[in-house]
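Can't paste images in this forum, so I'm doing it all in text. The chain is below; anyone willing to post the predicted structure tokens underneath?
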Amino acid sequence: MSLAPAAADGTKRRLNPWLVAPLVALAAFMEVLDISIANVSLQHIAGDLSAGQDESTWILTSYLVTNAVILPVSGWLSSVMGRTRFFVTCIIGFSISSLACGLAPTLGLLIVFRAIQGLTGGGLQPSAQAILADSFPPRQRGMAFALYGMAVVFAPAIGPTLGGWITDQFSWRWVFLLNVPVGVVLAILVSTLLEDPSAYTEARLERRRQGAKIDYVGFGLLAIGLGFLQIVLDKGEQDAWFASPFIFWLSVLSLLALIAFVIWELGQRHPIVELRLLFERNFGMSNLLMFLLGFILLGSTVLLPELVQRLFGYTATEAGLVITPGGVSIILAMPIVGRLVSIVDSRFLIVLGLAVCSFALFHMTRFSLETDYQTFVWARIYQALGLSLLFIPINTAAYRFIAPSMSSEASALINVSRNLGGSFGISLVTTFLSRFGQAHQTTLTGHATPFDPAYRQTMDGLTHLFQSQGATVAEASGKALGTVYGIVQNQALLLAFLDDFRVLGVIFLLVIPFVFIMKGGLPEHGQSPAAH
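Text version of the structure:
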């Protein structure tokens, strides 16, 4: 039985939205997964292609830069090409570029193909979310966004573990090649089963009749602004931030380009990015909350594996297994939250989610050098439950007062907010970790002097221990000093991690009052949207 049989007039009948949802969610999952899955394979890639570790990081940066540039204009591209056609084009382009990445013979070509992969894949998330928003009536959008949320939140959680396993068991090339068969199947199904809503098609045709032109100036300013910003965020800590002329001037050019972009776009009749949507109270606040969600989600996803690897000696796979149970708990919790948004004001769910996340992050500040695996896992699960209370209510509140004809533009903006939040989160928590670590090491080193009784007692005990093992007095004293220095370093690093978790927890607490800026109430029952 065909999923979308032809009607008498030759058009497709309405496709059950619950068949649409897993289809588009899988496409979004595939794209989000590729942001994180290659991270753990960099050393293998660098070794296989005879490149340095610093050079190999451009594999990640090139993807993020082009992804950041295409995301905000994906709504405009959908309105010009047609949403389904644009979605299929992105899937095909992503699949072809993934194949090229898997077969790349040199690092230079791999970086180029990764840039193309980010460019073609950048439209998958907003297109998938816009299709879901149009496929379901307002009262059912919570469950639809639950399925989408499972994809985009679980993907970065499972990415490092999956990438490490694929690389260890097979080859880093299969990290990219696995996208190809999935992309082929998705392209066939989407092009066969989905079509744009009639109202959306009419609006697109009307726009073309009015002679809407390509906003080259806006696109150029956007590409410079977001492209340079992504490079700054990705390379800033590595290059000592503004101490590097390269980072400083990229930052200046990015800021000027983004300011000029906002001014230019607000003056255009047919802007390439519909910034005026941000003036709607619910949508504007939802974008801020989604930025913070991305900030905390990806920031903490970087911190926790790094903590257990650097201080507890976990392997990459073991570190991934600390994160993965949290992703599983999100999958289990999101359908429940999807049901709750139809009967509980989204604002209250958001506040609860912020409070739970904050509690979980403050709970992480109690970690010590004796903390075991189960404690790490449960702390991540607590945080994941809070995150599941945020993603769906934020998206539901965001679309509540947005016209269906603007769903693609709205989806593009809210996905940009989440991705930018993630980039800022990763960059800033890494910087904070370095700065906090230096400060704590300076403080602790100040106490490690012969005038401190605890220091003398520790040194004497270690010196006697090493002497009992056959070392001379000078050798034992040197080993004792090295051991104490290692203890100081580990304690300073642990305190830096705890400070990072504390900062993230405080941010969530501070934003709670702003949630009530949004308009409350439950989503309307509404009518079923036009068919795809």
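Confidence is low (pLDDT under 50) at residues 1-13, 525-532. The CA atoms of residues 33 and 155 lie 5 Å apart.
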